[in-house]
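User: I'm writing a tutorial on reading structure tokens. Could you give me a worked example: one chain, its sequence, then its tokens, then a sentence or two explaining what the tokens reveal?
Assistant: Sure. Here is the example chain.
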Amino acid sequence: MADRIRVARIGAAHGVRGEVRLWSFTEDPLAVTQYGPLETKDGTRRFEIEGARPGKGFLVVRLAGVRDRTMAETLRNIDLFVPRDRLPPIEETDTFYHADLIGLLAITEHGAAIGTITAIHNFGAGDLIEIEPAAGGSTVLLPFTEDVVPTIDLEAGRVVVVPPTETEAQDD
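And here are its predicted structure tokens:
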């Protein structure tokens, strides 16, 4: 399991006073303000949120030390992480941090290797798992639903994947 979890991404500057748009990847978007300083993946830069308010699909945040639009513009697309131990424990049995799923082996119901989960995406219509095929080639995106991914076994390091058939995909 990952020891650092990506919780947000800085977007474009918002206004002229140094605020930025922030895309929170937490269940409650404002929870990202409660985890203490946020860091870049390599830990070389730290950011403290001084204030946050909801925007349309994002948060508008004021970061300590960022006082103008020019400074805010230099931060665009920086992913922000926190140590895992700062996050609340997961209490529901079928709930996972996305970081825990990255790197798991995806297998069929019969145990044949499909590939490895490389990412979890959400483009607005629900979560998708991205799988890099074991045989090589382009990655595959599949809906991250109970029908398509009926079994997640973190201890064994794998998920069972039942890809939708063409007929099922056309029915949607």
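What the tokens reveal: The helical segments are 69-73, 98-101, 166-171. The two ends are 34 Å apart (CA to CA).
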